Amino acid sequence: MKTVADMPMETASEEEVIYQNPLLFLKIWEICSDSPYHGLSDKCRWHYHKEVEFLAIIEGRLGIQTKHEYTVIGPGDLIILGSSQLHRTAKLDPGLLRYIVFQVDLSQHFDQSTMPYLHCFSELTQPLWKLNYIFRDNESARREAYALIMDIFEESQSRMRGYELAISASIKRLMLLLMRSDTEGVLGGAEETELIRLRPALDYVDRHLSEKIAVEDMCGLLNLSYHYFIKYFKKVIGLSFVDYVNYKRVKKAERLLLTRDLSIVEVGFEVGIPNMAQFYKLFKRHNHCSPKEFKQRMRGEAGVGVSEAAPQA
């Protein structure tokens, strides 16, 4: 049994991903380490990036900690980390560790013919990390996804003529595999035409989280009546507009607590909730703890237990 208390935390940081090919919007490379086992120590920095990340293990075992869970994967296993998901990794055995890191902006791999499926990977209502149940429960899908990532890596290394076409095709096959293997409906949701209609409102929320956001402003922006907008938004997104804004504010607050040296009061102002009683209430509703407790837990000071999952077969 490991606990978060055994896993000290340094300040989280946003990792800038430098694309190996700017037109493919990706970075893929192999990590090979024969350093001694160190577990989740202070050498393992919390970080995040807007790109989705796949980790595929060739040899050895790797521990991955996120806000939600601590998982161990071994040879032939892989895991997906969603856009801007806080995480850190650690080498778990004294022997050799080899694995592939694949970071990609999936939104850049949709064209006019595939655009209707963009919303499936937008993470507006469901984070992509929830798709890891596929790799855990579906051996065939796991093997196929692993092979696709290895193909992408090999093509990026060889750079033979047409490698861009091969990589782009493999990325699309990987997304198709995830969609068709998603028996729990993580990638379900609204039609793209409905999201396009709401896109100005969603973009407005992202840009103005530190300010007051009124339903009436969205109605004017979309030229919809008040009652039609609130019903339409709930139908498309699956949350009321107010709940959606609060969700986005809490998510931003989580990141600020771990990546900025700000007081709780300052974080509340940054996310547009200057009333501390309201901020604490909303934060606790989403995380079942106060902002201070969240910060302590994620920095390994609260001793919250995290079970170590067995490697996937």
* Structural class designation: alpha+beta
Strand order of the largest sheet: 3-10-5-8
Low-confidence stretches: 1-9, 301-313
Instruction: Write down the overall mean pLDDT.
Output: 85
Beta-strand percentage range: 15-25%
Q: Radius of gyration in whole Å, from Cα?
A: 21 Å
Measure the end-to-end span.
20 Å
Largest sheet: 4 strands, antiparallel
What pattern of helices and strands is seen along the backbone? Answer: EEEEEEEEEEHHHHHHHHHHE
Q: Characterize the overall form.
A: globular
Query: Got a strand count?
Result: 11
**How many individual helices?**
10
Domain HTH araC/xylS-type: 199-297
Protein name: AraC family transcriptional regulator
Keywords: DNA-binding, Transcription, Transcription regulation
Pfam family, one: HTH_18
